[in-house]
Amino acid sequence: MTSYSFHLINAFAERRLSGNPIVVFTCEEMPDEPTRQALAFQMGVAETAFIAAHDTHIHVHSTQYTLPFSVQAMLATAEASHPDEIGLAAQAFKTSQGQTWLLRQADRWWSQLATAHTRPARHNNLEMASALGIAATDIIGTPLFVDCGLEQLIVQVRSQQSVLQANPQVNSLSKLAESSKNLPQAAVWSNDGDHITLRFFSCDAFQVYEDFGAGTGAANIAGWMMASGQSAPFSLRIEQGLTIQRLVSRLSVIHVEVDAQRNIRVGGNVRRVGGGVIEL
């Protein structure tokens, strides 16, 4: 029998029972991919991360597939593996996308993201609106694919109500947000004054998934803003989760800072709320 220790972490959590639940397995040796995927399915949370002792490479899985990169999983892993750090501390983690630096300031972990790269979307606003289940007149700005670690379609809409109305289907989202780098992913967001509301969708061949805490999507919004003329430095407070149309939902708060050199950092409060052991 093999035992695997895990930590239950809430990422982007302003309160203990808020944010997005992430499970982090801290292993003596890294389990193989089928075992990791089976454990991720067993845990049933949005994302499950694995890190081995004396290594900095993080493997991340949803319940259905491997993820090449995840900001929230990296922040959760930093909290699970360095819970007693006080003050300012730095930690570098690796994923299949390369190395990322993480920094702790007080209760908040920050992740330094790659420089944003953009490319135009192939579909016009009418096609895009139809695929996302919103009105074409709700789309403002120019939708772009942005890549700060993962390439995602970033679509700004007029209001929080427009964000709430989004209802993409599998076939339409897969064509709209198709990427050679990862599964189709799209961020639909609004900026009402200083209040940014985000919903984040991804899909495989069978289903559309909605995330409670899309840290990479938040970084890509900052990349979209700079590509659209926003001058640096600036900071963002992005809310996600309460807009998800479920009986039970909860708020995630994602903080983004862009410095004068246009470097993007994504951060949030990350709280361990429990843990245990799985025996196989």
TrEMBL record:
One of its GO terms (molecular function) is isomerase activity. It comes from Iodobacter ciconiae. GO terms for cellular component: cytoplasm. Signal peptide: none annotated. InterPro entries: Phenazine_PhzF-like (IPR003719). Pfam families: PhzC-PhzF. This is PhzF family phenazine biosynthesis protein. PANTHER family: PHENAZINE BIOSYNTHESIS PROTEIN. It comes from the Bacteria. The active site is at E47.
